[in-house]
## 1
Amino acid sequence: MGLHSSRNETVEVHRIQPHQAVGGSIIDAKGREIPITEDMIQDACQELEKRLVKPAPAKQD
C-alpha cells in the first residue's frame, strides 16, 4: 500500500514504554537536546492525519 492508496486502513501500535526515547533528538530554542519519544511521533502523525486533504476524484470524460 502506497501513500496514494484510496483504502482507509489503520494499524494499531502498542508500545510497552511510550515515553522511552526511540533513537533521535531535536534541539529546542535554548539549545537543549530533547530525545524523541514514541509519544512525540504518534502525536505528530495524528496531527498530519488531521491536516490530510484527499484529492478530488478524477474527471471521467
## 2
Amino acid sequence: MPNTIVSKASTIWNGELFSGSGTTSLDTSGAGTFDVGWKARGEEAGATTTPEELIASAHATCYSMQFANMLTENGTPPTRLNTGAEVSFVAGAGITGIHLTVVGEVAGISGEDFERLADEAKRTCPVSQALSAVDITLTSSLA
C-alpha cells in the first residue's frame, strides 16, 4: 500500500480583504514565502501571487508528471514537456476555468497519439480530478 504523503503550506493574513495583505509559505519544501493580496487577485496581476497562480503552478506540474508517465508507459518517453496553466478568476464568481497548454519533445510518437495521451493525462492527473468542478481545456502539440 502506498504511503500517504501530506504537503503543507500556510498563510498569514493581516487586516480585511480589500486593504489587507499576507504571506503564504511552502512549508513542506521550505522553497519560499510569497506575498499575497486582494489587488493582485481581484484587480490586476502584480508583484504578489494569488491562490489561482499557485493552483496554476500545481496543475501544470501535476499534469506534466502524469503525461510524462503515460508517454513512458506508451514506449515514447518525453525528452521535454513545456506545460502552462491559466486559471481564470472572476471576483464574485470564483475560478471560472483552467486552460492547459503543453508542447512536447517526444521521439517516435504520432501527433494523433500525442494528442490522445495529452487529453487522457488531462482527465486523469490528480489535480485535474480535484479541480473538476470547473471546465478544464487543453491545447497540445509536438515541438
